[in-house]
């Protein structure tokens, strides 16, 4: 796919009351992340997978079942260098969800 390593900075924090999720997101999606998503969608579409037609909006779920109605959300910035991506499988059990890495792919270091 040829996507280069990139910097990812989370600068916005929020709460979705309808599903009680606290999230973090970048102010602007990195260009290389958009290229990665487009490449993955193209290849998976070719294999018969279908996707939501809404545009990709990157975010990270920080907390589930949260009630932040009267609480302040975090502020600041969290960032890291993205050098690879992983496919993760959610495994449900009586104890809750566990996540298992199925595969890992390195990005190009330019």
Please give a structural write-up.
It contains one helix and seven strands, in the order E-E-E-H-E-E-E-E. It has a single domain (about 5-80), classed as Cyclic Phosphodiesterase, Chain: A, CATH 3.90.1140.10. The model has no long low-confidence stretch (mean pLDDT about 90). It has about 110 residues and is mostly beta strands. Strand 6 and strand 7 (about 95-105) form a beta hairpin.
N-to-C series of helices and strands: EEEHEEEE
Taking all residues together, what is the mean pLDDT? 92
Output the radius of gyration: 16 Å
Strand order of the largest sheet: 2-3-4
CATH third-tier fold name: Cyclic Phosphodiesterase, Chain: A
CATH superfamily caption: Cyclic phosphodiesterase
What is the level-2 CATH architecture name?
Alpha-Beta Complex
| Structure classification | mainly beta
Using DSSP, what is the number of strands?
7
**Quick one: overall form?**
globular
Biggest pleated sheet: 3 strands, antiparallel
The total count of helices amounts to 1
Q: Distance N terminus to C terminus?
A: 14 Å
Level of helix content? 10-25%
Number of domains: 1
Q: What is the name of the CATH class?
A: Alpha Beta
Please summarize what this structure is.
The protein is mainly beta and 110 residues long. The protein has a single domain, classed as Cyclic phosphodiesterase (Cyclic Phosphodiesterase, Chain: A). It has one helix at 31-46, and strands at 6-10, 12-16, 21-25, 60-63, 78-82, 84-93, 96-106.
Describe the secondary structure blueprint for this structure.
Elements: E1 6-10, E2 12-16, E3 21-25, H1 31-46, E4 60-63, E5 78-82, E6 84-93, E7 96-106
Antiparallel strand pairs: 1-5, 2-3, 3-4, 6-7
């Amino acid at each position: 796919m040829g996507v280069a390593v990139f910097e990812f900075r989370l600068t916005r924090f929020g709460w979705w009351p309808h599903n009680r999720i606290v999230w973090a997101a970048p102010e602007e999606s990195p260009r290389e992340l958009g290229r990665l998503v487009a490449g993955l969608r193209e290849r998976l579409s070719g294999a018969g997978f279908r996707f939501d037609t809404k545009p990709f909006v990157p975010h990270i779920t920080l907390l589930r079942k949260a009630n932040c109605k009267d609480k302040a959300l975090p502020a600041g910035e969290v960032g890291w260098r993205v050098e690879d991506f992983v496919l993760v499988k959610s495994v449900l059990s009586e104890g809750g969800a566990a996540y298992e890495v199925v595969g890992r792919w390195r990005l190009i270091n330019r």
